[in-house]
Amino acid sequence: MRGRRKTVRISEAEWSIMKVLWDGCETTGRGLTLGEIAAELSGTTGWSSTTIRTLIIRLAEKGAVEIDKSTGVYKYTPRMKKAECVEAEVAAFVARVFDGSECALMEMLARSGKLSAEEKQNVIGILAEL
């Protein structure tokens, strides 16, 4: 297991912050300020800047966010790729709900009837590649 990155558990509230950082940093090509993050979340969460800062600090302590303190205004950037976090979250979900069976998860999704025809074709294509 040497060289493998530690899995970081991100709470639902922290996911909101990470989504803003992933999207915003990709769009701007730089870290985001607390004000920018708060502005992005203002319409959906109603959180104060203090709450957002607390969540960012927790994420930084977990190693998911980097804080650039080199300028007068702190800038926040994700240290983990979205795909890494999604993969860890799905693995934890599959382990908890489906006793580790990815096949059981896929079967439940396929049989739920909520996949569009295009999504079904995409899944078939992915499986064919494997």
Helix content: 55-70%
At the fold tier of CATH, the topology name of the largest domain is Arc Repressor Mutant, subunit A
End-to-end Cα distance, whole Å, is 25 Å
* CATH superfamily caption of the largest domain: Winged helix-like DNA-binding domain superfamily/Winged helix DNA-binding domain
User: Which band does the percent of strand residues land in?
Assistant: 5-15%
What is the H/E order?
Answer: HHHEEHHH
Structure description:
With 130 residues, the protein is mainly alpha-helical. Helices cover 60% and strands 6% of the residues. The protein has 6 helices and 2 strands. Strands 1-2 form a two-stranded antiparallel ribbon. A hairpin with a 6-residue loop joins strand 1 (65-68) and strand 2 (75-78). The longest helix is centred in the first third of the chain and has 17 residues, at 12-28.
Based on the model shown, name its key terms.
2 domains; 6% strand; Arc Repressor Mutant, subunit A; 130 residues; mainly alpha; 2 strands; 6 helices; elongated
